[in-house]
């Protein structure tokens, strides 16, 4: 479920969002207590108090004439932590975040897991602010934030990619699939609200799927492996329960068991939950 398909009464939607945000803040608070991240995050919050990244993104898209485009959204720390844990990140890893927004995910991952992160973002203001916030921090040798169009990237040196596709159009998600198809075999791509294995079954293999909590509700998080399908014969692992809530994310499991991912249904039936 996300803002694209919520289709509910606006008042109920607003109320649900308020409760979700309160829950997210409560659960996420334990993930902020890392000195370098706290330093970055407190100043980031202060800066964006005066002009939110949502507003900056809106202005950027309006200027480009993309009046209908949904531009911005953030991955809550509780959800990012669930991703990092499943990827078993360590100091030697190098991650690419496509569309890194304000760079918060990059800083959090580098501060907590010691890995190297390259974030690319198309909105110059967001990148400029993040670079200033990072200046002087000991994380500068681990986090690189660049202002560029993700579709101009050379992907050949990456093994781990994170991309939140929630705000993207179908056409844009297809472009992301094409882009990530250029990753070397065995690389892993984590997507939010996009199934690369359905779009390009000949190139991506679904490895794991789990529910991630966002401000708008539950979204599907997919870990997909790059390579020929016959290279990875195991069924995907399906975690139909969230780590932090036992609340209703039941729609999640049913939402995307489309033809291409029928293995999901099998996995769920076999009780492959974590
Ligand atoms: C939904 S936000 C996600 C922000 C961040 N990754 C997170 O999860 O908190 C998507 C971001 O991708 C950026 N983006 C969209 N298309 C892009 C492109 N072609 N090149 C670079 N960044 C892009 C948007 O500007 C936006 O900041």
TrEMBL record:
GO MF: methyltransferase activity
Methyltransferase domain location: 95-163
InterPro entries linked to this entry: FAM173A/B, Methyltransf_25, SAM-dependent_MTases_sf
An individual GO BP term: methylation
Family matches, as CDD domains: AdoMet_MTases
Keywords tagged on the record: Membrane, Methyltransferase, S-adenosyl-L-methionine, Transferase, Transmembrane, Transmembrane helix
Transmembrane segments: 12-33
Matches recorded under Pfam families: Methyltransf_25
Keyword S-adenosyl-L-methionine: yes
Protein name: Class I SAM-dependent methyltransferase
């Amino acid at each position: 479920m996300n803002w694209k398909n919520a289709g509910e009464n606006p008042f109920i939607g607003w109320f649900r969002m308020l409760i979700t945000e309160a829950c997210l803040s409560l659960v996420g608070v334990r993930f902020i207590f890392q000195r370098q991240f706290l330093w970055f995050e407190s100043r980031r919050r202060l800066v964006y108090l005066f002009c939110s990244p949502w507003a900056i993104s809106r202005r950027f898209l309006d200027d480009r004439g993309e009046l209908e485009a949904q531009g911005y959204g953030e991955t809550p720390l509780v959800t990012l932590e669930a991703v990092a844990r499943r990827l078993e990140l360590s100091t030697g890893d190098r991650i690419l975040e496509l569309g890194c927004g304000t760079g918060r995910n990059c800083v959090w991952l580098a501060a907590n897991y010691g890995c190297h992160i390259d974030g690319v973002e198309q909105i110059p203001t967001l990148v400029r602010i993040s670079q200033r916030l990072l200046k002087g921090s000991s994380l500068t040798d681990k986090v690189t934030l660049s202002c560029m169009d993700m579709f101009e990237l050379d992907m050949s040196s990456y093994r781990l990619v994170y991309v939140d596709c929630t705000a993207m159009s179908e056409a844009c998600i297809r472009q992301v699939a094409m882009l990530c198809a250029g990753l070397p075999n065995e690389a892993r791509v984590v997507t939010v609200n996009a199934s690369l294995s359905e779009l390009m079954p000949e190139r991506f293999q679904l490895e794991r799927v789990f529910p991630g909590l966002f401000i708008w509700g539950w979204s599907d998080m997919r870990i997909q492996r790059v390579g020929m399908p016959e290279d990875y014969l195991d069924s995907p692992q399906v975690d139909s329960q969230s780590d932090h809530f036992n609340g209703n994310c039941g729609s999640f499991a049913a939402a995307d068991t489309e033809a291409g991912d029928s293995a999901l249904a099998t996995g769920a039936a076999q009780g492959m939950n974590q």
